[in-house]
Design a protein that fits this description.
- Keywords: Signal.
- It comes from Gandjariella thermophila.
- This is Lipoprotein.
- The chain is mainly beta and about 150 residues long.
- It has one domain.
- Helices cover about 15% and strands about 35% of the residues.
- The chain starts with a helix and ends with a strand.
- The model is unreliable at about 1-30 (pLDDT under 50).
Length: about 150
């Protein structure tokens, strides 16, 4: 029974990670885009693709244990982006595959844009900072260095 429950957890975790990493056509809205304009500042996702104002964003590419959900961006500019949503964190207790996900309302700031290597005319945010609006996870995931 425990093995079956653990396997179900692993399958659900993999499905959640895949669902968070693959944009859904039904989730697209005019304010959200995975195809940025020819020039501007973007957020680089786990697949090294540019995103502009993503509603959902995976931060832990390897195992899906950390993500942003339901993001609503109030600012998206050349120097910074600001939005609110939920940070979803796996507590990995007793271990990540059997852990539980917890959501925390957050305000997110993306900043420190740099030229995106190999993509002329595009810059990408390199820092992500989170302010917790109610409750916070046991581990500190309030600052993330973003990848190229």
């Amino acid at each position: 029974m425990r093995v079956r429950r653990a396997l179900r957890g692993i399958v659900l975790l993999a499905a959640a990670a895949l669902g968070a990493a693959v944009p859904s056509a039904s989730a697209a809205s005019p304010a959200t885009s995975t195809a940025p304009a020819a020039a501007g500042t973007v957020l680089v996702n786990c697949e090294h693709r540019a995103e502009v104002r993503p509603a959902n964003f995976l931060l832990a590419c390897a195992d899906g244990t950390l993500r942003l959900d339901g993001m609503r961006w109030t600012q998206w500019g050349p120097r910074a982006a600001v939005g609110t949503g939920q940070q979803v964190v796996n507590d990995c207790d007793p271990y990540c595959a059997a852990g539980h996900y917890h959501s925390y309302p957050v305000r997110v700031t993306l900043d420190t844009p740099r030229p995106w290597p190999g993509h002329p005319g595009l810059t990408h945010y390199t820092q992500l900072n989170v302010v917790y609006l109610a409750g916070r996870p046991a581990i500190d995931v309030s600052h993330t260095d973003l990848w190229d």
